[in-house]
Amino acid sequence: MTADVTTASATGGHAELLDRLKVIDTDSHWSEPYDLWTSRAPARYVDRVPQMGERDGRRRWWFDGDIAIGLPIASSVIAPDGQKVTGAAFFDLDNDMVHRASFEPEARVAMLDALGIHAQVMYPNVAGFGNQNFLKSPDDMLRLVSVQIYNDALAEFQDDTGQRVFGMALLPWWDLDAAVAEIERASANGLLGIVTCSNPEEAGLPDMGERAWDPVWQACSDLAMPVNFHIGSSKGSLDFFGKAPWPSFGQERRLAVGSANLFMGNARVIGNMIYAGVPERFPDLRFVSVESGIGWIPFFLECLDHQLDETAPNELAELSLAPSDYFRRQFFGTFWFESAMVPAAIDYLGPQCLMFETDFPHPTCLYPRDDDRLATTIAPLSPEVVTRILQDNAAELYRIEL
Predict the structure, then answer these.
(1) Tens digits of per-residue pLDDT, 22-60?
(2) Strand, helix or coil at 114?
(3) For residue 104, which of 229, 273, 303, 343 sits 20 to 30 Å off, Cα-Cα?
Protein backbone atom coordinates (compact mmCIF):
# COMPACT_ATOMS: atom_id res chain seq x y z
CA MET A 1 0.00 0.00 0.00
CA THR A 2 1.51 3.33 -1.03
CA ALA A 3 0.37 6.62 0.46
CA ASP A 4 0.29 9.94 -1.33
CA VAL A 5 3.26 11.69 0.23
CA THR A 6 3.74 14.29 -2.47
CA THR A 7 5.23 17.51 -1.19
CA ALA A 8 2.81 20.31 -0.44
CA SER A 9 3.39 23.56 -2.28
CA ALA A 10 4.89 25.20 0.80
CA THR A 11 5.16 24.75 4.52
CA GLY A 12 3.09 27.91 4.79
CA GLY A 13 0.25 26.05 3.10
CA HIS A 14 0.37 23.48 5.86
CA ALA A 15 0.41 26.27 8.43
CA GLU A 16 -2.93 27.41 7.06
CA LEU A 17 -4.13 23.81 7.09
CA LEU A 18 -3.12 23.41 10.74
CA ASP A 19 -5.14 26.50 11.57
CA ARG A 20 -8.22 24.92 9.96
CA LEU A 21 -7.86 21.40 11.31
CA LYS A 22 -9.43 20.12 14.51
CA VAL A 23 -6.20 18.55 15.72
CA ILE A 24 -6.73 15.58 18.06
CA ASP A 25 -4.01 14.59 20.53
CA THR A 26 -4.29 10.82 21.00
CA ASP A 27 -2.07 10.45 24.07
CA SER A 28 -2.05 12.65 27.15
CA HIS A 29 -2.06 11.89 30.87
CA TRP A 30 -3.91 12.83 34.03
CA SER A 31 -2.02 13.84 37.15
CA GLU A 32 -4.80 12.43 39.29
CA PRO A 33 -6.08 14.78 42.02
CA TYR A 34 -5.09 13.58 45.47
CA ASP A 35 -8.73 13.21 46.51
CA LEU A 36 -9.92 11.47 43.33
CA TRP A 37 -10.67 8.19 45.12
CA THR A 38 -11.22 9.31 48.73
CA SER A 39 -13.83 11.92 47.77
CA ARG A 40 -15.92 9.31 45.95
CA ALA A 41 -15.35 6.11 47.94
CA PRO A 42 -18.02 4.38 50.04
CA ALA A 43 -17.30 4.90 53.73
CA ARG A 44 -16.01 1.36 54.25
CA TYR A 45 -13.34 1.86 51.56
CA VAL A 46 -12.32 5.46 52.13
CA ASP A 47 -9.18 4.52 54.09
CA ARG A 48 -8.18 1.84 51.57
CA VAL A 49 -8.65 3.34 48.10
CA PRO A 50 -5.62 5.04 46.45
CA GLN A 51 -4.57 8.18 48.30
CA MET A 52 -1.58 10.41 48.77
CA GLY A 53 -0.21 10.24 52.28
CA GLU A 54 2.76 9.72 54.53
CA ARG A 55 3.70 6.34 56.00
CA ASP A 56 6.82 5.95 58.14
CA GLY A 57 8.16 9.22 56.80
CA ARG A 58 7.49 8.31 53.16
CA ARG A 59 5.04 10.50 51.21
CA ARG A 60 3.60 8.80 48.15
CA TRP A 61 0.49 7.11 46.72
CA TRP A 62 -0.75 4.25 48.92
CA PHE A 63 -3.30 1.52 48.30
CA ASP A 64 -5.15 -0.75 50.73
CA GLY A 65 -3.59 1.08 53.63
CA ASP A 66 0.14 0.54 53.29
CA ILE A 67 0.83 -0.76 49.75
CA ALA A 68 3.00 1.70 47.82
CA ILE A 69 1.71 2.09 44.25
CA GLY A 70 3.12 5.35 42.99
CA LEU A 71 5.74 8.00 43.48
CA PRO A 72 4.76 11.27 45.20
CA ILE A 73 4.92 13.09 41.89
CA ALA A 74 2.52 14.63 39.42
CA SER A 75 4.11 12.87 36.42
CA SER A 76 4.05 16.33 34.86
CA VAL A 77 6.88 18.55 33.67
CA ILE A 78 4.79 21.67 33.04
CA ALA A 79 5.50 24.34 35.64
CA PRO A 80 2.75 26.71 36.87
CA ASP A 81 4.18 29.49 34.68
CA GLY A 82 3.90 27.26 31.62
CA GLN A 83 7.61 26.52 31.29
CA LYS A 84 8.72 22.95 30.62
CA VAL A 85 10.99 21.36 33.23
CA THR A 86 13.67 19.02 31.87
CA GLY A 87 15.90 16.34 33.33
CA ALA A 88 15.56 14.43 36.58
CA ALA A 89 13.78 17.35 38.29
CA PHE A 90 10.66 15.55 37.04
CA PHE A 91 10.95 13.25 40.08
CA ASP A 92 10.60 16.15 42.52
CA LEU A 93 7.38 17.72 41.24
CA ASP A 94 4.05 17.02 42.93
CA ASN A 95 0.61 18.38 42.04
CA ASP A 96 1.24 21.56 44.01
CA MET A 97 4.29 22.32 41.86
CA VAL A 98 2.94 21.83 38.33
CA HIS A 99 0.51 23.53 35.97
CA ARG A 100 -3.13 23.00 36.90
CA ALA A 101 -3.83 21.75 33.39
CA SER A 102 -2.13 18.55 34.53
CA PHE A 103 -5.14 17.68 36.69
CA GLU A 104 -7.94 20.29 36.45
CA PRO A 105 -10.57 20.19 33.66
CA GLU A 106 -11.02 23.95 33.19
CA ALA A 107 -7.27 24.55 33.05
CA ARG A 108 -6.83 21.62 30.65
CA VAL A 109 -9.35 23.14 28.23
CA ALA A 110 -7.57 26.49 28.42
CA MET A 111 -4.32 24.70 27.63
CA LEU A 112 -5.87 22.94 24.64
CA ASP A 113 -7.12 26.27 23.32
CA ALA A 114 -3.68 27.83 23.78
CA LEU A 115 -2.02 24.93 21.93
CA GLY A 116 -4.56 24.81 19.12
CA ILE A 117 -5.75 21.30 19.97
CA HIS A 118 -9.40 20.40 19.56
CA ALA A 119 -9.52 17.26 21.72
CA GLN A 120 -7.34 14.88 23.73
CA VAL A 121 -7.35 11.22 24.64
CA MET A 122 -6.19 10.77 28.25
CA TYR A 123 -4.49 7.92 30.16
CA PRO A 124 -3.78 7.24 33.85
CA ASN A 125 -0.68 7.50 36.00
CA VAL A 126 -1.39 6.21 39.51
CA ALA A 127 -3.04 2.90 38.56
CA GLY A 128 -0.26 2.17 36.09
CA PHE A 129 -0.55 2.62 32.34
CA GLY A 130 -2.35 -0.74 32.14
CA ASN A 131 -3.95 -0.70 35.60
CA GLN A 132 -1.33 -3.15 36.82
CA ASN A 133 -0.75 -1.38 40.16
CA PHE A 134 -4.16 -2.28 41.60
CA LEU A 135 -3.24 -5.96 41.47
CA LYS A 136 -0.89 -5.34 44.41
CA SER A 137 -3.87 -5.66 46.77
CA PRO A 138 -5.37 -9.15 47.23
CA ASP A 139 -8.87 -7.71 47.73
CA ASP A 140 -10.91 -8.21 44.54
CA MET A 141 -13.72 -5.90 45.62
CA LEU A 142 -11.36 -3.08 46.62
CA ARG A 143 -9.68 -3.32 43.22
CA LEU A 144 -13.04 -3.24 41.42
CA VAL A 145 -14.31 -0.30 43.48
CA SER A 146 -11.10 1.60 42.73
CA VAL A 147 -11.48 0.94 38.98
CA GLN A 148 -15.10 2.05 39.00
CA ILE A 149 -14.34 5.22 40.96
CA TYR A 150 -11.61 6.13 38.48
CA ASN A 151 -13.88 5.50 35.48
CA ASP A 152 -16.68 7.55 37.03
CA ALA A 153 -14.20 10.38 37.60
CA LEU A 154 -13.14 10.10 33.95
CA ALA A 155 -16.73 10.53 32.81
CA GLU A 156 -17.00 13.62 35.02
CA PHE A 157 -13.75 15.02 33.62
CA GLN A 158 -14.99 14.44 30.08
CA ASP A 159 -18.21 16.30 30.84
CA ASP A 160 -16.39 19.08 32.70
CA THR A 161 -14.19 19.70 29.65
CA GLY A 162 -17.22 19.97 27.39
CA GLN A 163 -16.40 16.71 25.60
CA ARG A 164 -12.85 17.83 24.79
CA VAL A 165 -10.84 15.33 26.87
CA PHE A 166 -11.68 11.63 26.60
CA GLY A 167 -10.24 9.32 29.23
CA MET A 168 -9.82 5.66 28.39
CA ALA A 169 -11.55 3.38 30.92
CA LEU A 170 -9.53 1.10 33.17
CA LEU A 171 -10.41 -2.61 33.16
CA PRO A 172 -10.48 -5.02 36.11
CA TRP A 173 -8.64 -7.43 33.81
CA TRP A 174 -7.90 -9.91 36.63
CA ASP A 175 -11.61 -10.90 36.47
CA LEU A 176 -12.73 -11.24 32.87
CA ASP A 177 -16.45 -11.36 33.72
CA ALA A 178 -16.06 -8.14 35.70
CA ALA A 179 -14.05 -6.69 32.82
CA VAL A 180 -16.92 -7.28 30.37
CA ALA A 181 -19.37 -5.70 32.82
CA GLU A 182 -17.11 -2.68 33.25
CA ILE A 183 -16.74 -2.23 29.49
CA GLU A 184 -20.52 -2.11 29.22
CA ARG A 185 -20.84 0.24 32.21
CA ALA A 186 -18.11 2.56 30.95
CA SER A 187 -19.67 2.74 27.49
CA ALA A 188 -23.07 3.53 29.01
CA ASN A 189 -21.42 6.37 30.96
CA GLY A 190 -20.06 7.91 27.75
CA LEU A 191 -16.46 6.65 27.78
CA LEU A 192 -15.14 5.83 24.33
CA GLY A 193 -12.39 3.22 24.77
CA ILE A 194 -10.47 1.09 27.24
CA VAL A 195 -6.85 0.69 28.32
CA THR A 196 -5.63 -2.59 29.72
CA CYS A 197 -2.63 -4.57 30.88
CA SER A 198 -0.57 -6.09 28.08
CA ASN A 199 0.84 -9.07 30.00
CA PRO A 200 -1.82 -10.59 32.29
CA GLU A 201 0.14 -13.85 32.31
CA GLU A 202 2.60 -12.16 34.68
CA ALA A 203 -0.16 -12.35 37.30
CA GLY A 204 -0.91 -16.03 36.58
CA LEU A 205 -3.91 -15.21 34.38
CA PRO A 206 -4.69 -16.42 30.85
CA ASP A 207 -2.66 -14.58 28.24
CA MET A 208 -4.54 -12.62 25.61
CA GLY A 209 -4.15 -15.35 23.04
CA GLU A 210 -6.43 -17.66 25.03
CA ARG A 211 -10.14 -17.88 24.24
CA ALA A 212 -10.97 -16.84 27.81
CA TRP A 213 -10.43 -13.27 26.59
CA ASP A 214 -12.89 -13.55 23.71
CA PRO A 215 -15.86 -12.12 25.68
CA VAL A 216 -13.74 -9.01 26.37
CA TRP A 217 -12.86 -8.59 22.70
CA GLN A 218 -16.49 -9.23 21.71
CA ALA A 219 -17.79 -6.59 24.12
CA CYS A 220 -15.29 -4.01 22.86
CA SER A 221 -16.12 -4.88 19.26
CA ASP A 222 -19.88 -4.69 19.80
CA LEU A 223 -19.62 -1.31 21.55
CA ALA A 224 -16.96 0.15 19.21
CA MET A 225 -14.59 0.59 22.17
CA PRO A 226 -10.97 0.64 20.91
CA VAL A 227 -8.50 -1.46 22.91
CA ASN A 228 -5.56 0.77 23.80
CA PHE A 229 -2.20 -0.70 24.78
CA HIS A 230 -0.12 2.04 26.37
CA ILE A 231 3.61 1.43 26.66
CA GLY A 232 4.67 0.32 30.14
CA SER A 233 1.27 -1.31 30.72
CA SER A 234 2.53 -4.20 32.82
CA LYS A 235 5.05 -4.77 35.56
CA GLY A 236 7.46 -6.48 33.20
CA SER A 237 7.27 -3.85 30.46
CA LEU A 238 7.63 -0.76 32.67
CA ASP A 239 11.40 -0.66 32.87
CA PHE A 240 12.71 2.90 33.27
CA PHE A 241 15.33 1.88 35.80
CA GLY A 242 15.45 -1.90 35.49
CA LYS A 243 17.09 -4.02 32.80
CA ALA A 244 17.13 -1.51 29.95
CA PRO A 245 19.70 1.03 31.27
CA TRP A 246 23.07 -0.20 32.47
CA PRO A 247 23.60 0.00 36.24
CA SER A 248 26.52 2.42 35.85
CA PHE A 249 24.29 5.14 34.40
CA GLY A 250 23.20 8.18 36.39
CA GLN A 251 19.54 9.07 36.92
CA GLU A 252 19.08 11.23 33.82
CA ARG A 253 20.95 8.82 31.53
CA ARG A 254 18.88 5.93 32.86
CA LEU A 255 15.64 7.86 32.33
CA ALA A 256 16.65 8.70 28.75
CA VAL A 257 17.68 5.23 27.58
CA GLY A 258 14.94 3.54 29.62
CA SER A 259 12.32 5.74 27.98
CA ALA A 260 13.69 5.07 24.49
CA ASN A 261 13.51 1.31 25.04
CA LEU A 262 10.05 1.63 26.56
CA PHE A 263 8.68 3.19 23.38
CA MET A 264 9.28 -0.02 21.45
CA GLY A 265 7.90 -2.40 24.08
CA ASN A 266 4.58 -2.69 22.27
CA ALA A 267 6.17 -4.77 19.52
CA ARG A 268 5.60 -7.77 21.77
CA VAL A 269 1.91 -6.92 22.13
CA ILE A 270 1.32 -6.34 18.41
CA GLY A 271 3.07 -9.54 17.39
CA ASN A 272 1.32 -11.69 19.97
CA MET A 273 -2.14 -10.31 19.25
CA ILE A 274 -1.83 -10.86 15.50
CA TYR A 275 -0.30 -14.33 15.78
CA ALA A 276 -2.93 -15.29 18.38
CA GLY A 277 -5.59 -14.67 15.75
CA VAL A 278 -7.48 -12.02 17.75
CA PRO A 279 -7.88 -9.61 14.81
CA GLU A 280 -8.77 -12.57 12.58
CA ARG A 281 -11.64 -13.55 14.90
CA PHE A 282 -12.76 -9.96 15.59
CA PRO A 283 -12.34 -8.04 12.34
CA ASP A 284 -14.33 -5.02 13.57
CA LEU A 285 -12.20 -4.56 16.71
CA ARG A 286 -9.61 -1.77 16.75
CA PHE A 287 -6.32 -1.66 18.66
CA VAL A 288 -4.00 1.26 19.41
CA SER A 289 -0.30 1.12 20.22
CA VAL A 290 -0.07 4.22 22.41
CA GLU A 291 3.03 6.38 22.97
CA SER A 292 5.16 3.91 21.03
CA GLY A 293 6.12 5.93 17.99
CA ILE A 294 5.76 4.53 14.48
CA GLY A 295 9.17 4.42 12.77
CA TRP A 296 9.92 0.88 13.96
CA ILE A 297 6.52 -0.55 13.04
CA PRO A 298 7.15 -1.23 9.30
CA PHE A 299 10.35 -3.14 10.07
CA PHE A 300 8.64 -5.20 12.76
CA LEU A 301 5.64 -6.02 10.57
CA GLU A 302 7.95 -7.06 7.76
CA CYS A 303 9.61 -9.38 10.28
CA LEU A 304 6.23 -10.85 11.22
CA ASP A 305 5.35 -11.36 7.56
CA HIS A 306 8.67 -13.12 6.99
CA GLN A 307 8.38 -15.34 10.08
CA LEU A 308 4.86 -16.35 9.13
CA ASP A 309 6.12 -18.25 6.11
CA GLU A 310 9.56 -19.22 7.34
CA THR A 311 8.90 -20.62 10.81
CA ALA A 312 5.16 -21.05 11.43
CA PRO A 313 3.33 -21.99 8.22
CA ASN A 314 1.37 -24.78 9.95
CA GLU A 315 0.29 -23.24 13.24
CA LEU A 316 -0.57 -19.94 11.56
CA ALA A 317 -2.46 -21.42 8.60
CA GLU A 318 -5.67 -20.06 10.17
CA LEU A 319 -4.64 -16.47 9.43
CA SER A 320 -6.26 -15.19 6.26
CA LEU A 321 -4.09 -12.06 6.00
CA ALA A 322 -0.44 -11.19 6.32
CA PRO A 323 0.41 -9.63 9.72
CA SER A 324 1.10 -6.29 8.07
CA ASP A 325 -2.38 -6.33 6.53
CA TYR A 326 -4.01 -6.97 9.90
CA PHE A 327 -2.20 -3.90 11.17
CA ARG A 328 -3.33 -1.80 8.23
CA ARG A 329 -6.92 -2.93 8.78
CA GLN A 330 -7.27 -2.85 12.58
CA PHE A 331 -4.30 -1.25 14.34
CA PHE A 332 -3.15 2.30 14.94
CA GLY A 333 0.19 3.75 16.00
CA THR A 334 0.80 7.19 17.52
CA PHE A 335 3.72 9.56 16.96
CA TRP A 336 4.87 12.89 18.37
CA PHE A 337 8.59 13.84 18.16
CA GLU A 338 9.42 11.75 15.06
CA SER A 339 10.12 13.40 11.72
CA ALA A 340 12.47 11.42 9.48
CA MET A 341 10.59 8.11 9.52
CA VAL A 342 7.00 9.34 9.38
CA PRO A 343 6.79 9.55 5.56
CA ALA A 344 8.32 6.08 5.28
CA ALA A 345 5.82 4.66 7.79
CA ILE A 346 2.96 6.24 5.87
CA ASP A 347 4.30 4.89 2.60
CA TYR A 348 4.43 1.35 4.00
CA LEU A 349 1.26 1.34 6.13
CA GLY A 350 -0.94 3.94 4.51
CA PRO A 351 -2.20 7.01 6.38
CA GLN A 352 -5.34 5.35 7.73
CA CYS A 353 -3.67 3.79 10.80
CA LEU A 354 -1.44 6.56 12.17
CA MET A 355 -2.35 9.31 14.64
CA PHE A 356 -0.72 12.35 16.25
CA GLU A 357 -0.10 12.75 19.99
CA THR A 358 1.72 15.08 22.39
CA ASP A 359 2.21 12.92 25.55
CA PHE A 360 1.25 15.99 27.61
CA PRO A 361 2.40 16.52 30.38
CA HIS A 362 5.08 13.77 30.54
CA PRO A 363 8.84 14.38 30.18
CA THR A 364 9.06 13.71 26.43
CA CYS A 365 5.89 15.64 25.62
CA LEU A 366 5.59 17.85 22.56
CA TYR A 367 4.91 20.94 24.64
CA PRO A 368 4.26 23.59 23.78
CA ARG A 369 2.89 22.07 20.59
CA ASP A 370 6.06 22.45 18.56
CA ASP A 371 4.80 23.71 15.22
CA ASP A 372 8.33 23.95 13.83
CA ARG A 373 8.90 20.26 14.53
CA LEU A 374 5.41 19.36 13.34
CA ALA A 375 5.89 21.42 10.17
CA THR A 376 9.09 19.50 9.42
CA THR A 377 7.27 16.22 9.95
CA ILE A 378 4.30 16.96 7.73
CA ALA A 379 6.05 19.05 5.04
CA PRO A 380 6.49 16.04 2.66
CA LEU A 381 2.86 14.98 3.09
CA SER A 382 -0.17 15.94 1.04
CA PRO A 383 -2.93 17.97 2.75
CA GLU A 384 -5.21 14.93 2.56
CA VAL A 385 -2.71 12.77 4.46
CA VAL A 386 -2.06 15.49 7.03
CA THR A 387 -5.79 15.83 7.63
CA ARG A 388 -6.14 12.11 8.16
CA ILE A 389 -3.29 11.65 10.64
CA LEU A 390 -3.90 14.83 12.65
CA GLN A 391 -7.70 14.79 12.69
CA ASP A 392 -9.83 12.27 10.84
CA ASN A 393 -8.36 8.96 12.02
CA ALA A 394 -8.77 9.84 15.70
CA ALA A 395 -12.18 11.42 15.19
CA GLU A 396 -13.48 8.29 13.48
CA LEU A 397 -11.82 5.82 15.85
CA TYR A 398 -12.92 7.51 19.09
CA ARG A 399 -16.18 8.94 17.71
CA ILE A 400 -15.16 12.53 18.51
CA GLU A 401 -17.40 15.25 17.15
CA LEU A 402 -15.68 17.78 14.90
Answers:
(1) 999 999 999 999 999 999 999 999 999 999 998 777 788
(2) helix
(3) 229
